[in-house]
Amino acid sequence: MRKYQNFISGKWVDARSGLTFENRNPANWSEVIGTFPKSSKEDVEEAVRCARKAFETWRLVPAPHRGDILKRVGDLMVAKKEEIARTMTREMGKVLVETRGDVQEGIDTAYYAASEGRRLFGHTVPSELPNKFNMAIRTPVGVAGIVTPWNFPMAIPTWKIFPALLCGNTVVFKPASDTPATAAMLVEILVEAGVPTGVVNIVHGGGSDVGMAIVEHADVDLISFTGSTGVGIKISEVASKTLKRVSLELGGKNAQIVMDDADLGLALDGVLWGAFGTTGQRCTATSRLLLHEKVFDKFMADLVSRTKKLRLGDGLLETTDIGPCIHEGQRKIVQGYVDIGQKEGAKIAAGGAIATDDGQKNGWFFQPTIFTEVTPAMRIAREEIFGPVLSVIRIKSLEEGVSVLNDTIYGLSSSIYTKDINNAFRAIRDIKAGITYVNGPTIGAEAHMPFGGVKQTGNGHREGGWTVFEFFSEWKTVYIDYSGKLQRAQIDA
Ligand code: UN1
Asked: Is a pLDDT exceeding 90 seen at residue 1?
């Protein structure tokens, strides 16, 4: 069993307190992956001090050179893809094809950020005065606090850390305490690729001790967080005291509409992948299926039969389709919603219980579950569950489907299956969500496209693609007057 450490100011160190916590395999809770420093405010203090110091030199490194380092990071991730994927499956349970995909998303993000080093475009704009030149250029913001979840232990940290570095910021990184080993591998790669001392620091530990200490810190300039809406609201409140720039990527209650004119086989593959991929533990997971009444019975029969065939187990085995919930607490939440759904009058069409077969007893497994006879008012149709539970609602028309889809406090991902181009374009126009898929499931965002949601899914920022560089850079407006005399804007023109 390995003993992991924090990385602060270019050195691997224990928490000041000397305390540690264990990280266990959710598919087999007797297996300990490693011990990690249980850090506190003092460790954060030290990391922020180093990141601030390193900022003064890192900000002066030309962006194409920062990009070259990220290119090497991408190359190292390619070389270590399998090793990272296996570690990730062991520490958070999702199946190997998915953890390989998670690493691939990080690789794509690295190469995209590397190429942005030779762009980072600003603007030149004509002046209203003669012999005067106007431009707006990008400058780094400062020290970035990066707080990330366990469901995408590699991809999500890279979405944040790579653009932060490319733009010239330094980083204090607090990964989820359920997936610290994958995070440690990422930092090792950054170091090996040549990120200078103090530019990236990792502080392991809990959200209330370490995460909040970063959010509160007056010398941290921005926070990028992915997690629950509840924690996002708290971060927003605390960060407002120091007027930090904050990017929040929060909950979802994503729905897939299936119209009567859809390719039903395709829609079935889509909902199975969207609802039960990553054991439903994605903020983009398909949590509601809005099924047209004309195809309802046939589609439900096929959906239930396919769901019952899904194989639960250790994600390292090629025969496994679905891994465990992340921990006991999450499985209790899932069980709690299954109880709530039944009390509300919904009917269980598949699953509905803890899985106890051989190979499942020692992990936090829950059967893939489908609720039918769900109405939009029920809690299982409104609240984020973050587990393998799908609520099916019957719809009569596109209008009803879109209206039910929109009837939630969240607005991250959405999907419609239809062969009718008019339906597709109406849905694109009327669905209130940051992401809409046509004839594809709600999961599977690509690294070079904007990612984020509306309403209580976030606070208006986007990760991914070209948009994330907005968040991690500050505009500096520059006026250069070469007339040799005082020119008064708005007066002399
Ligand atoms: C998340 O669930 O927090 O689109 C991110 C997807 C993945 C990212 C999910 N590429 O499902």
From this structure: no
- Which residues contact ligand 1 via a Cβ below 6 A? 105, 151-152, 226, 282-284, 443-445
Bridge partners, residue 480, by sequence: 133
Helix (H, G, I), strand (E, B) or coil at 382: coil
Q: What value does the CA radius of gyration of the chain take, rounded to a whole number of Å?
A: 24
**365 contacts: CB under 8 Å, gap ≥ 6:** 27, 312, 313, 324, 325, 331, 354, 355, 356
What is the CB neighbour count within 10 angstroms for residue 317?
Answer: 14
227-269 pLDDT per residue, tens: 999 999 999 999 999 999 999 999 999 999 999 999 999 999 9
Domain 254-438: which topology? Aldehyde Dehydrogenase; Chain A, domain 2 (3.40.309)
Domain ranges of the chain: 2-250+458-477, 254-438
User: What's the CATH number for 2-250+458-477?
Assistant: 3.40.605.10
The answer to whether the pTM exceeds 0.90 is: yes
Q: Which residues contact 491 (CB under 8 A, 6 or more apart)?
A: none
What is the CA(275)–ligand 1 centre distance, in A?
A: 12
Encoded tokens for 167: 């733009």
As a whole number, mean pLDDT of residues 375-396 equals: 98
Active site residue 249: yes
